[in-house]
Each structure stands twice: as C-alpha cells, then as structure tokens.
Amino acid sequence: MFPALRTPPPILASDVLREDVAPLEPGKKALRFWIVGLGLTVLAVAGGIHLGLLPGGFSSARLTYALGGALLCAAVLPFPYSVRGVLVALVGLACLVLGLSGHGPLAPLVISQGDLPWEIGRAVGASSLPAALLFRSHYRAYRGARIVLAVALLLVVPSLIKAGLTLPSGDLPARIGAVLVLLSTLTSLLGFMGSGTTAASTAWAVVVLAAFGGDVMLRAASSRGQAGLGLAYVQAGGLFMVATTLVALGVFQLLSWSMAADARRVDVLSKEQGPVTELPPEE
Predict the structure, then answer these.
(1) Which residues have C-beta within 8 Å of that of residue 262, sequence separation ≥ 6?
(2) Residue 256: half-sphere exposure toward Cβ, Cα within 13 Å
C-alpha cells in the first residue's frame, strides 16, 4: 500500500486577487537589486573622492565607504523584509543628517545656516512623498494608502513654500528647480484616483526624486565663479537623490510590513467584479 498523498489546498481566485491589490512583501527581490545598485553607486562616489576626482577629503571618503558598505550588507545578507527596510532607511537618513550638519559628500546642501530649515523640509518631502506613492501603487484598493499619500503631501508643504518664494526672486536655474518641484508634486495628486488603477504612482515617485535632486544640481549653474562649488553641487544633488531614494524605499517597506494585514481585508471580489445588473423577470 502506498501512503496517502496530501493534496495541497486549492488556490482561490480571491487569494490571487488579494495578493495583487495587497501583497504581503511587495517587490522583495527587486528591492534588493535596487539596493545593491545604489550601494555600488555610493562606493563609486567614495572612490572618486578618495582619488581626488570629486570634491571632499579623506574623512568624507571614509564616511561614504562606510555608507556604501552598509547598503551592500543590507541587500546581500538574509534580513527579514521589515529589518531590511529599517537598515536601508537608516543609511539614507544618516547620509542626509551628515550632509545637513556639514559633513560628508552632501555637505554642500546647506549654503548658509538660514537655509538649514528649508533643506530639512526638502529632505523630508523628497523622502516621504515617493514612499507614499510607491505604497499607493502597490495597495491601490486600500483606503489607508490614500491617507498615507495625504500625510506625505502635507510634509511637502515647506518645499512648496520655498519653491513659491524662489519663483519671483531667484535666478533662472533656481526658478527652473522650483518649477520642477512644483510640477512633480502636482503629478502625485493622480494617486487619489480610484482603486481600479495604480495611477502610474511608481513613475511619479521617480519623477519626484529626480525633480528634488535636480533642484539641488541646478545650484551648480548659480555658482559660476565660485571655485569648486559647481561640481560639489552636482555631486550633492546626485547623492541627495540616492539618499532620499534609500529613505523612501525603507519607509515603503515598513509601511507595507505594518499595513499589509489590514489592507488584505479588502473585499477583492467586489472590487474586481463591479456592480451586478439584475435581469428583468421572464414573462
């Protein structure tokens, strides 16, 4: 007699739909590849600083090496989904905090102490809004995703105020940067569309990251005649995009880990099937 084989339970259509609109660990494998790529980018910048090809000294290169190495460890080692999110967010946050305090490769972010509050607001907005858009893209049927997006838009308000003040008084590069910030924030409003679409929220997250980083880079065009500052701002803008991307990815993973169970309570069949039309009775 052969032993009885256990038949696995069938995969229901509702389970497949639920995983589509409310995945437990969205982008688990893809995120690790992105983190590896960002880590290698940070290490390349560290090498450039070390060799004197990029602005900064030995201490700046050492800090950048440490941040890049930490990213590679976070991507390669078998950490749980939530732990990897925390580690990635901390690396990006460390890079931003060091830059805002005048240390590391992001030191050119703060031109004067009067700019520090605005730069903090820029960093918060550029990190939180893409994270909310990524969350909205993967949890399109979850009402909480729109609440998260609304909170993120509130956190972007300081950056919008700064952009509004720059438009009438700044030079041309600064105005272009302000327009990029304003337009990229407006595109994120598409995230409030219905649950039948992702509203291309992932693409708008990339647009926001590029726009806020581009705003930093455009200072290079305003620093003509100031030796070394042009390349320093380009470097700071590129690493600003890397750092805010890391924070956004980490926050997205934490949001997914903490809210996935609640998001999966959605009635996916009613979302997908739509209203039922009653047929007239037969005579």
Answers:
(1) 142, 144
(2) 32
Distance (Å, whole) CA 219 – CA 174: 7
CB 204 within 8 A of CB 132: no
Task: Give the per-residue pLDDT at 276.
Answer: 41
Q: Could you write out the DSSP letters of every residue in 50-117? A: HTTSSS--HHHHHHHHHHHHHHHHHHHS---HHHHHHHHHHHHHHHHHHHHTT-STTGGG-SSGGGHH
Mean pLDDT calculated for residue range 17-42: 86
Alpha helices, DSSP H, located in 139-228: 143-169, 172-187, 201-217, 219-222
Q: How far apart are CA 201 and CA 22, in angstroms?
A: 15
Enter the tokens of residue 223.
């620093």
**CA distances, 28 to each of 64, 259, 262, 283 (Å):** 26, 16, 19, 57
More confident residue, 268 or 22: 22
Q: pTM value?
A: 0.84
Which 3 state secondary structure label does DSSP give 196?
coil
150 Cβ partners below 8 Å, 6+ apart? none
Question: Residue 170 has what DSSP assignment?
Answer: S
Which phi and psi (to 5°) does residue 17 adopt? -65, -40
* 109 and 216 Cβ atoms separated by less than 8 Å: yes
Distance CA 113, CA 164 (A): 20
Confidence of residue 280 (pLDDT cuts 50, 70, 90): low
Radius of gyration for the alpha carbons in the chain, expressed in angstroms and rounded: 23
For residue 124 the two structure tokens come to: 């918060």
